[in-house]
User: Fold this.
Amino acid sequence: MITPLIFPLNVSFTIFCKALGIIRSDQDQDISIRYSITGVGADQPPNEVFSIDPELGKMFVTKPLDREHRSSYHLRAHAVDMNGNQVENPIDLYIFVIDMNDNRPEFKNQVYNGSVDEGSRPGTYVMHLSAFDADDNTTANGMVRYRILSQTPHSPIPNMFTINSETGDIVTVAPGLDREKVSQYTIIVQATDMEGNLNFGLSNTATAIITVTDINDNPPMLTSRTFSGEVPENRVDLVVANLTVIDADQPHSPNWNAVYRIISGDPSGHFTIRTDPISNDGMVTVVKPVDFEMNRAFMLTAVVSNQAHLASGIQSSLQSTAGVTISVQDVNEPPYFPTNPKHIRFEEGVPAGTSLTTFSASDPDRLQMQQIIRYLKLSDPADWLSINGTNGQIITTAILDRESVYVKNNIYEATFLAIDNGSPEASGTGTLQISLIDINDNPPALVPRESQICERMNKNVNGVNITAADADTDPNAGPFVFELPNYPTSIRRNWTISRISGDYARLALRYQVYLKPGMYEVPIVVSDSGNPPLSNRSVIKVKVCPCDEHGDCTTLGAVVAAGLGTGAIISILICIIILLCMVLLFVVWIKRREKERQTKQLLIDPEDDVRDNILKYDEEGGGEEDQDYDLSQLQQPDSLDHIISKPPGVRRVDERPIIPESQYPIRPVVPHPGDIGDFIHEGLRAADNDPTAPPYDSLLVFDYEGSGSTAGSVSSLNSSSTGDQDYDYLNDWGPRFKKLADMYGGGAED
Assistant:
């Protein structure tokens, strides 16, 4: 039997081939036994870490062991005989690697940043540091302890902070943190294993940077107890004084930013103090105009504070308050109109030269020498007014008309200018508003001026509603009175007016009165309700026309009413019909001609018609040797004597024969389609029998072209239709050579 064994290795990194122990079987005295081990570290990765003597059963470590990589191994031992038969059951071997202090503590960061408020009490938490040791933390090898090695600077004392040796928390241990004196501390922290034993433990260090954050422990202080400035009267948005302040807290933070207030000396709110965002100074600014005649100087009391409240236990400084003296400078102020705008009421129609009012201005500069004011007209849209340059009296220069386009809502507005004689001159503007009271100065006008009515009266729909327009207002406008004049007498005989309401009436034909269709002018007298009333004789143009059952003028009736008689209308209709017939005949003629063009047959096949297929090629240029030739051979001779005088039978074959020309058949003017074939055959026979017709079917002799021509000899051309010539390639030359391809290409098949 093999007993299970546990081998603790007291090393973390052992020497190769260190013996672990011996495995023996109870039967090794009787038979020869072979020992082996299996498992991770033996025959599984990592392989061959452990080995065993197969005969003696001694186990060895063959490679270095690292507990941080693998802390234990589980192997199985086997015992077999020489034939490989199992002698004993496999046993489990557990090998534990005992830790050694071979790893230093490691900080996650080399530099840590923390912060603490200035003025913090002792024991205030600042920050946390931690280090990791890869050794076994259940043993002293992995137990880390912390301590502070140094502090920079040493102000106010060298040990302002302490660190918890086990947790690594840094806290304050003494009061006196002041950002204005020391804004940052640098601390070196050491971490040591072996529970901090400096003799046996391994150590490492890190840096902790502690920033002292600002609190509002310094109140702002004005650099002076009094400030002064000057301001011209009637000016705004002007900086008149500058308050400077000192604050030891962190610049451009709420603990440093100054806020200024005026606590006394300005009950009307003429001034405010704005903070300069860069310098933190207070800018005393005028926000409401000041008047030298009312206040020659202002004694202000200003106080300054921070955006953030002062820290607990910090008192405000006496230097947070200062007095500000503002002197007001006198300037020449413009005259002003006490009542602006000034309202007055007048009836329209007042004659020119009427005095309306006195529009005078006052000079606010009471403390200066008496100044003279003169007046000018600045704006007078209708040019109705004038102003006295000395006293400001307003006088009309034209009749005031309420119905003018320059009057808005019954009010006419004009502006005037008052100028003093100060240095420099100053001017003020005043507005005069004149409310014009209406008078009955406009007669009413008839509305509408044109209408239409049926020629025969219909009680339900006949009549025209009329009213009047009056430029005046009540009570000088409606209700209106509508009347027909007594002259001419036909008006009252044919027409009647009935009252509908105060502003409306109805104009209609009298009952059983018939008027021919046409345009009629009906005079009507319209009177308003003014006192006294005004009347106006207006003419309304009424178109009398035939109507349908709904009382609407028919189209023919409207034309007749426009002044065209029946004869004229019939003539117009006949002209329209004639014009339409001409257009129709022209269209029919065009269609017929187009049809004739489409049905007309050509005498020749369109594919054989080559009249529009003339191709122009470039001329074949010659060389120097073909430039010397006799052009006389190509010219027509002046006479034929040299030809006629030749003996019979002797002549040039390229000369035109001197014989009577053949007579060709004359083509009839209008040939019958059946005679066209006969005509062509007769012409062909005449041409064949005519020796004078070109070509002459004879050898033509031309001048010598010259040697060295790049063109090949034409003697190689064979015009005979016999032979084995293949013309099938003509089918590839396109539609223009289709006829030739049909004639020659199909010869073999024919």
About this structure: The two ends are 117 Å apart (CA to CA). The first strand starts at residue 5 and ends at 9. Helices lie at 489-494, 555-561, 566-599, 641-644, 676-688, 738-745.
